[in-house]
Write a structure and sequence with these properties.
Length: 469
């Protein structure tokens, strides 16, 4: 069972030469691809890109399954605390592969699995509502922070720990916290050691947005009953083609080349991913972060100021046909669109026949929602082609742990190739770090006083431009 990259809609044959690509243009990227490819393979061999090895990490898989087994046995609710790359992967897996209404199912129908929540923001209203909803006695909190110092996650942790201790006492609160963090460094690791929390490790060389196939994504998925061994098998399968040295045989490299050509040669600064599946909508969300944080950079690898990076947008089919599509069809020619499609849905819903006397409704009867979804997706691709808008399709034969594993791995490797082709470092995030440092300054963290001063003096410089409603 293999997913397919279908890029006919990117080609000049389909949309004309002004916006579309030719085989010659793609082939002209072969030399650059070779250099990027060799560099990635060398770095991989040298152990410099450990995310590539996550699908092969049997020890991590075993440990996650053991921990998940304990959690499933002991708790009713499982709450992930984290932000960015520490939660987006888990959310994507949960949405794609757990029951669509997992948390609303009665316990018996959940087969004893806990409800799974992701507290990925610090909005006081949302966070307190969640803490009031769960029974602390029966809840396990998975604090996920690679650095162990992110203000949002650590604030959540401090609040939760305090409430647990007040409710259960210092000794009994311990099994209610599991820390997923760097194996050696950071405050979270140190605290976990000191307090005796169970810990799961994130390889020091794996950044947040490349960590979905590590315990970061695997533990919440396993607790939700997802077959994580199959997920990893799918990723390993994708690796077989995504490491090939020929551009036309390597879907990750090809999609990177197509996206980069769309951005550079065809001047399409916006890259939309539209998932025609509720289950895949958060894969598009996860990918948005992967693409944005990895490719949006001020400096290239030679230290030159380039301010590069396509803007990723996520959308949902068919819902956003009634929201975004007008713009995509008739607005500026500034987008490349990726369709995430599903060959066979896990459920079929028939539309009963009827209303034979109303032509505008009778045609629907006898079809299925599946037919309608597929027809709308294909019609939209066709309409975009007619309107000379470039697009690709990533087609999943069906949604299961294996194909989702393939998909995530494909997109991760594609991102590395795109970074190489754009000559930037896709693995750092200096812009995010800068924001974090200003927050520390404003919150009074020692050592960051000058950041607070910088904000205060800038505020004074800028006049007040306000109107009250
Ligand atoms: O992808 C990334 O590197 C970021 O989005 C991080 O995951 C995010 O900032 C959270 O960092 P941490 O896991 O260190 O708390």
């Amino acid at each position: 069972m293999r997913i397919t990259l279908d890029f006919g809609g990117m080609m000049a044959d389909a949309v004309g030469r002004r916006h579309g690509l030719t085989v010659e243009q793609i082939d002209a990227m072969s030399e650059r691809f070779k250099v990027v490819h060799q560099n990635l393979q060398q770095r991989r061999k040298a152990g410099d890109l450990p995310f590539y090895e996550l699908p092969y990490d049997q020890a991590a898989l075993k440990k996650v399954l053991k921990t998940a087994g304990r959690v499933i046995k002991e708790c009713e609710d499982f709450v992930v605390l984290g932000i960015g790359g520490s939660t987006l992967g888990g959310i994507a897996l949960f949405r794609a592969l757990a029951h669509p209404q997992h948390n609303l199912l009665p316990e018996a129908k959940r087969k004893g699995l806990p409800r799974v929540f992701f507290a990925d923001n610090i909005d006081p209203e949302g966070f307190s509502a969640l803490l009031n909803l769960v029974n602390l006695e029966k809840t396990v909190f998975n604090v996920i922070s690679k650095s162990g110092g992110t203000a949002e996650t650590m604030s959540q942790f401090i609040i939760v720990r305090d409430r647990l201790i007040r409710k259960l006492g210092r000794k009994r609160h311990t099994p209610h916290i599991i820390a997923t963090t760097d194996p050696e460094h950071g405050h979270l690791k140190a605290l976990a050691r000191e307090q005796g929390y169970e810990t799961l490790s994130i390889h020091p060389g794996v950044g947040g947005r490349f960590s979905v196939l590590s315990p970061v994504g695997l533990l919440p998925a396993a607790v939700a009953g997802i077959d994580i061994a199959e997920l990893l098998a799918g990723a390993r399968n994708a690796n077989r083609t995504c490491k090939k040295g020929g551009l036309w045989k390597n879907p990750a490299a090809m999609n990177a080349v197509l996206q980069v050509l769309a951005y550079t040669a065809k001047k399409k600064p916006i890259s939309v991913m539209i998932a025609y599946s509720d289950a895949l909508r958060d894969v598009a969300d996860w990918y948005r972060q992967l693409w944005a944080e990895s490719l949006g950079k001020r400096l290239d690898v030679n230290g030159r100021v380039v301010h590069v990076g396509p803007t990723p947008v996520k959308a949902l089919g068919v819902t956003d046909q009634h929201s975004q599509l007008q713009l995509y069809m008739e607005g500026p020619f500034d987008k490349v669109i990726t369709f995430l499609t599903v060959g066979r849905f896990r459920k079929t819903v028939k539309i009963p026949a009827g209303f034979n006397h109303i032509d505008g409704l009778s045609y629907l009867g006898g079809h299925t929602l599946n037919d309608l979804m597929q027809a709308e997706e294909q019609a939209t691709e066709f309409a975009l082609t007619q309107a000379r808008r470039i697009h690709t399709g990533i087609r999943l034969p069906e949604i299961n742990p294996f194909t989702v594993g393939q998909l995530l791995f494909l997109l991760e490797v594609q991102t590395l190739y795109a970074g190489g082709l754009l000559e930037i470092n896709p693995l750092d995030q200096p812009g995010v770090e800068a924001g974090k440092e200003f927050t520390y300054g404003m919150m009074g963290r020692k050592g960051f006083e000058n950041r607070a001063q910088m904000i205060a003096s800038k505020r004074q410089e800028i006049g007040s431009y306000r109107i009250m409603v």
